[in-house]
Automatic annotation (TrEMBL):
In the C-terminal section; belongs to the purine/pyrimidine phosphoribosyltransferase family. The keyword Nucleus does not apply. It comes from Candidatus Lambdaproteobacteria bacterium RIFOXYD2_FULL_50_16. One of its GO terms (biological process) is purine nucleobase biosynthetic process. Pathway: Purine metabolism; IMP biosynthesis via de novo pathway; N(1)-(5-phospho-D-ribosyl)glycinamide from 5-phospho-alpha-D-ribose 1-diphosphate: step 1/2. Transmembrane segments: none annotated. The keyword Cell wall biogenesis/degradation does not apply. It catalyses: 5-phospho-beta-D-ribosylamine + L-glutamate + diphosphate = 5-phospho-alpha-D-ribose 1-diphosphate + L-glutamine + H2O. Binds 1 [4Fe-4S] cluster per subunit. This is Amidophosphoribosyltransferase. Its EC number is 2.4.2.14.
């Protein structure tokens, strides 16, 4: 669930880019990278990329070498390959017929070995076997050996690859940014256009929160501007080509699933509450999930509280539906920097869970407490929180989770390939509750989830919840 972003045409692109990447940091904090031009006549692409968070990696001094305003960027959450390997950091390099090519991707391909063999048969060597390298190599093969243009090459590659992905490509001898999304629409991608004092800025992003940030920046920097704004989702199987002067062109992969919304876990956990899905904020969606949860699993208690930050919207919905007061009883430790324990490795996850939250003792003392979290994946944080609440004087602790149990592997961008690491795998609700040590535990039903989403179940990938995969064949990595 990496964050991908690209834009062109903004007059202060280098000034705002670090903040934009910070706004997508929740999607991945293993590494951060940016690609842009450092010379013209001929154009030359270079990168700034390192292991670490955007605030450390992408500082203004490192961006001084770039000229112009065309960039693609990435915040990395590692799945298949090592989080500590510099060679895995995006943007990924490739040599192409149009000079250097850089690519960023979000998601996972499920037929990497098959694709590597396809490339080997065409005398193309791959090194890291990450999705970005595979996609770039496949695109190059289509351009070099088949004589296709970039859009034709991407469309042909989409017939070969299987999985969930959203990607962006730029090259030295082409002024355009190319963006494309998997035909099932598993991984999200959004496009926006801003008009600002005669400038046209076009942007592509995993989430709409980065577009909001650009608008706020422009409002402060250019308070008298009356620029227009347009936003839409990139469709499943859609290929976009754009720069900051000409028209935006697009085409669709022939076998696209036109109405697909994508990964259901975007609604539950991944996306920021201020980002949009089909024109509605995830905040509103998650409040409805909390309300549905109360309808299904009522409990008598004194207060409703949330595990920050993900549980807050659903806790508000649960509180409104139940009439029980919402209270802040769990605080996120500022020194952890908002890291998501879900996206860390096993050793770091335990260490982070121990120090990430503090309890307001005088709020929970002698109280029956309903604790709402967005999900429970491995249970590391939940178990420690329950114990901390009791140690802080809580009389009862009732866990309420506004999504069904996460008990299946995901193969499209989440590092949960081994289901035995999931706390709900092979366990009953009562057994899970006993492991966590709570008085009660309840998950929102799959029917309640889709009532809250207000959309048909067939539009989503829900492999992590039900095991239902967009690809029917067995998945081997």
């Amino acid at each position: 669930m990496c964050g991908v972003f690209g834009f062109t045409g903004h007059p202060e692109a280098k000034q705002i880019l670090p903040t934009i990447l910070a706004s997508l940091q929740h999607r991945g904090h293993d590494a951060t990278g940016v690609a842009g031009l450092i010379g013209e006549g001929p154009d030359c692409i270079d990168t700034v990329k390192e292991i670490g968070r955007a605030s450390r990696v992408i500082d203004p001094d490192k961006l001084k070498k770039f000229i112009g305003n065309r960039f693609i960027a990435h915040t990395r959450y590692s799945t298949r390959n090592s989080s500590k390997s510099p060679r895995e950091i995006h943007p990924h390099w490739a040599q192409s017929m149009q000079g250097r090519m850089v690519i960023v991707t979000n998601g996972d391909l499920i037929n990497v070995d098959e694709l590597a063999q396809y490339l080997a048969e065409r005398k193309v060597k791959v090194y890291a076997k990450n999705d970005a390298e595979i996609l770039a190599s496949l695109i190059n093969v289509q351009i070099r050996l088949a004589g296709k243009n970039m859009i034709e090459a991407i469309a042909e590659v989409m017939t070969l690859v299987k999985g969930g992905y959203a990607a962006m490509v730029m090259t030295e001898d082409d002024p355009n940014i190319y963006a494309f999304r998997d035909p099932q629409g598993i991984r999200p991608l959004h496009f926006a256009e801003f008009k600002l004092n005669g400038h046209v800025c076009r942007a592509i992003s995993s989430e709409t929160c980065s577009f909001d940030l650009i608008q706020r920046f422009d409002l402060v920097r250019y308070p008298e501007s009356t620029g227009d704004y347009f936003h839409r989702e990139v469709g499943p199987g859609e290929i976009l080509c754009f720069n900051d002067v000409g028209p935006v062109t697009n085409t669709f992969f022939a076998d696209r699933e036109a109405d697909k919304i994508g990964c259901v876990f975007e609604s539950i956990y991944f996306s920021r509450p201020d980002s949009l899905q089909r024109g509605e904020s995830f905040q509103k969606i998650r409040e409805r999930m909390g309300a549905e949860l109360y309808k299904e699993f009522k409990v008598e208690a004194d207060i409703v509280t949330a595990v920050p930050k993900g549980g807050i919207p659903s806790a508000i919905g649960y509180s409104k539906a139940s009439g029980m007061p919402y209270s802040i009883a769990i605080l996120e430790e500022p020194s952890t920097g908002g890291l998501r324990s879900f996206t860390t490795n096993a050793v770091d996850r335990i260490a982070l869970a121990k120090m990430k939250y503090s309890i307001l003792r005088d709020v929970v003392k002698d109280k029956r407490v309903v604790v709402v979290d967005d999900s429970i994946v491995r249970g590391t944080t939940a178990k420690l929180l329950v114990r901390s609440l009791y140690e802080s004087g809580a009389k009862e602790v009732h866990l309420r989770i506004p999504c069904p149990p996460y008990n299946h592997s995901c193969h499209y961008g989440i590092e949960t390939k081994d289901p035995s690491t999931l706390i709900s795998f092979g366990k009953t609700n009562e057994q899970i509750c006993q492991v966590l040590g709570a008085d009660s535990l309840a998950y929102l039903s799959i029917e309640g989830l889709y009532r809250a989403l207000g959309a048909d179940r067939s539009l989503f990938c829900e492999e992590c919840l039900s095991g239902r995969s967009p690809f029917k064949e067995n998945i081997h990595r």
